[in-house]
Design brief:
It is a single chain. The protein is α/β, with parallel strands linked by helices and about 325 residues long. About 30% of the residues lie in helices and about 25% in strands. The chain has an eight-stranded mixed beta sheet, with helices on both faces. Strands 3, 4, 5, 6, 7 and 8 form a six-stranded antiparallel beta sheet that branches. The chain has a two-stranded antiparallel ribbon with strand order 13-14. A hairpin with a 2-residue loop joins β3 and β4. It is globular and about 55 Å long.
Length: about 325
């Protein structure tokens, strides 16, 4: 089978973890399928966020579309009207003049979503469109003149006050939730997208992340939003018979932000078992990471990242391949 299977182990790189005797989850995880199939190992240059990496990976250029607008595309939100602005809304606690991002949201995410929806009348004049996804996160689009420049997670930062009706909604939710609310970042309108590399064939993307799905949608690839990791794999396997596949394991990054190296190790091992179950006959697999995410600090790590393949892509073993040249090297050797 010559179709390509791109497997993004999001944030797989890490710092040495004291809980793992100074080793990284990716180094201690038992992944026999990967180890038996990978024949070539190189690296490429990571980027600080997934959308920065993937846009350059698939097009050779950094994105000119803000993250929230890309995520709106990944969730199918209305954005065609040039007056509409997209806002990525992430759970946070606003206190002592700081935005303190929250990554342990399971106990309150349902209440948070209900609270936000109960206050959506505040935005009625702005024609809002909102969708929630993993752990209480959401993307909102609405007609607005306000495109705030705000700090991005995962690093806590001083609050930039949000004005207008969106600021009022944020404050109302915080009042009702004892300080927990959502905070916008990555805000923007639609922008220019570069064409994808021509060697990609009829690709479909599978993820629980609107970020990666938005990149793929902006390039005209098929997308499927599947929240459950174990359900993502059979859907991806079926699609691989029709063309190339991008399979995103976002959970690796999520557990890193939660500073839980044991969960990170476990999801890497689960991924390997699912790969063995569904892709034992695939001979063109590309494993890669987009950046590191530290289980020690919970923050992204800007570093070179692994690219491991089951076939020769023309890169010297252990070399660092420029990010904007990686996909052409892969497709030239498919």
């Amino acid at each position: 089978m010559s179709n390509l299977l791109f497997v993004l182990l999001d944030g797989a790189e890490d710092d040495p973890c004291p809980q793992l005797d100074g080793r990284k989850p990716i180094d201690v995880a038992e992944m026999p399928f990967l180890e038996s199939r990978v024949t070539h190992r190189c690296r490429t240059t990571g980027r600080g966020y997934t959308q920065l990496f993937l846009n350059e990976f698939f097009t050779g250029h950094p994105p000119e579309i803000e993250r929230a607008a890309l995520e709106a595309m990944g969730l199918g939100l209305r954005l065609e009207d040039p007056r509409r602005v997209a806002y990525r809304l992430s759970p946070a606690r606003l206190e002592d003049g700081m935005v303190r991002w929250s990554y342990h949201n399971s106990e309150f995410k349902d209440e948070l979503e209900r609270c936000i929806m109960s206050h959506m009348d505040i935005l009625e004049a702005n024609d809002p469109d909102i969708k929630f996804f993993v752990e209480g996160r959401s993307v909102l689009t609405m007609v607005s003149d306000d495109v705030p420049v705000t700090p991005a997670p995962p690093v806590d930062a001083p609050i930039v006050e949000i004005g207008g009706p969106l600021g009022l909604l944020i404050r109302e939710v915080a009042d009702d939730m004892g300080g927990i609310t959502v905070y916008p970042w990555g805000c923007g309108r639609m922008g220019r997208q570069y064409p994808g590399f021509p060697g990609i064939r009829n690709m479909t993307a599978f993820s629980d992340s609107p970020t990666s799905l938005g990149i793929c949608a902006s390039l005209g690839y098929g997308i499927e939003l599947i929240y459950d990791l174990e359900e993502r794999f059979p859907a991806a396997r079926e699609a691989l018979d029709r063309g190339d596949v991008f399979l995103h394991v976002d959970e690796v990054d999520e557990y890193s932000h939660q500073k839980d190296p044991f969960k990170k190790k476990a999801v890497l091992e689960l991924t390997d078992r699912l790969m063995a179950e569904y892709f034992s006959d695939a001979d063109r697999i590309i494993y890669f990471a987009d950046h590191g995410t530290s289980c020690v600090t919970g923050e992204h790590i800007l570093t070179d990242v692994p690219v491991w393949t089951t076939f020769d892509i023309g890169a010297r073993e252990g070399s660092v391949v420029p990010l904007d040249g990686l996909v052409p090297s892969i497709t030239d050797h498919r």
